[in-house]
Amino acid sequence: MACCTSRCFLLTLCVVQLIATIERQIFDFLGYMWSPIVVNFVQIIVVILGFFGAYQYRPKYIAIYIVWTLLWLAWNIFVICFYLETGVLNKDSSILNMGTGSKSWWEMHGIGCKSSFNFSGIPEEQHFFPLPTTVEGCILQYYYVECIQAGIQCFLALCGFGSACYTFYAYTREDDTFDFIGGFDSFSAYHSPSKASHLHLKPIYSKGKLQEPSI
Fold first, then answer.
1. Which residues share a beta bridge with 135?
2. Tens digit of each residue's pLDDT, the chain (215 residues)
3. Between the CA of residue 180 and those of 12, 116, 168, 173, 185, what are the distances in Å?
4. Which long-range contacts (C-beta less than 8 Å, at least 24 apart) are formed by 168-172?
């Protein structure tokens, strides 16, 4: 019963993670944030593997999900530290955009944000990633929005890690129980029934001579 409950919880959590990651991927595409795009893509693949691992009782897929969840958690913690400029990190650096000069989509398109641009004196090749000169009126700054998204992913990752570990343990325990009962005892599990007594060969004695056996 506990295994079924943890399995259902993990399946539901994988669906929620998939929806949240796809939503995040869309906005990262709109902002041309290539490092998060690559990591989000890997997250989507691994979450699908974790879902099928729980659905089809495949502990190896769940193990992959567990290992990646730790890396995914570390990545989101880094994103939070990046946008909050913890230590030597600077949110204006090109770590997340891979040198394209782009920024988060939420900087210019957040709720209430009004951006103004000045294209004079800027080379034409940089017009593809225009950066606003001023952004005013934002109800919530873009770096807080990114931190909130990363924080939600951290919460889901922690829940997924715990649920996946318990489900993995439950699956492996069930396999060990099956083997103990008879999984490795090939003779007791697959021993064919003995032949019926009327099929046994019996010798027939007649007048002191041993005749051919009859069935």
1. 115
2. 555 788 899 999 999 999 999 999 999 998 889 999 999 999 999 999 999 999 988 899 999 999 999 999 999 999 999 999 998 898 888 888 887 778 888 888 888 878 776 656 555 555 455 666 677 778 888 899 999 999 999 999 999 999 999 999 888 887 655 444 444 444 344 444 444 444 445 555 555 554 555 55
3. 32, 71, 18, 11, 8
4. 168/59, 168/62, 168/63, 168/66, 170/2, 170/3, 170/6, 170/7, 171/3, 171/57, 171/59, 171/62, 172/59
CB hemisphere CA count around 197 (13 angstroms): 0
- Within a 13 Å sphere around the CA of 175, how many CA atoms are in the beta-carbon half? 10
All residues at 6 or more sequence positions from 199 whose CB lies less than 8 Å from its CB, including other chains: 215
User: Could you give the CA distance from residue 6 to residue 13 in angstroms, rounded to a whole number?
Assistant: 10
Residue type, 210: L
In the chain, the amino acid numbered 178 is F
